[in-house]
Amino acid sequence: MQHRSVNDVMTPEVVTARPDTPFKEIAALFHRNDITAIPVVDDQDRPLGIVSEADLIRKAAVLPDPEGRYPGRWLDGPDRARAEAETAGGLMTSPAVTARPAWTVAEAARVMDKHRVKRLAVVDEAGRLVGIVSRSDLLEVFLRHDTEIREEIVDEVLGRTLRLAPDAVRVTVEDGIVTLTGRLPRRSQIPVTERLCRAVDGVVAVHRELDWTEDDTEPRLEHPRAYRAAS
Prior knowledge:
Layout: H1 6-9, H2 23-33, E1 37-41, E2 47-52, H3 53-61, H4 77-83, H5 88-91, E3 98-99, H6 105-115, E4 119-123, E5 129-134, H7 135-138, H8 146-161, E6 169-174, E7 177-186, H9 189-198, E8 205-214, H10 224-230
């Protein structure tokens, strides 16, 4: 099976900032390029961190109300320092969470979820920035047409990988939800089949109505003669 990689969905042309880029210039870059975050890189284009709209909004949140009705949000320690920062180096969230171009979409999604970030800086083997991938980029796999998903399951999963007879399992796909109906040679093949189908790009869920010919999950008793010979 061919899975879409980070390289397939990332944005390769990335607007960047340097640690000394001023606050107002960052805001202008957001506006001019219609973006919500900028990687901060060093002289070798290695990402140091990321500045997002949330980092800029924090500065406004700590400002007191001009009419004196609200003193401004209170922040401690590093958060206060970031709110009062004037350049990208002080504003950024660091270190930057990164991905590699060859990662699958699933690998990148797991890293995003683990670190609770909305985007990943994509770096090459030398650690240099080569792109950026966002949550919306990763969700592109779910735009695959149902027909394309079904063809991959029938040809790649059931045919080439599991080598099942063409009429063994009926596959339907609707809105990314796969339904498998039929009979497999062995009971142990059922969870394997489901797992492989779930791994296909664009699959939302797998429903199965599968039977089996041989139950190979039950332990078999040793033949009495074999037992006596061994003893």
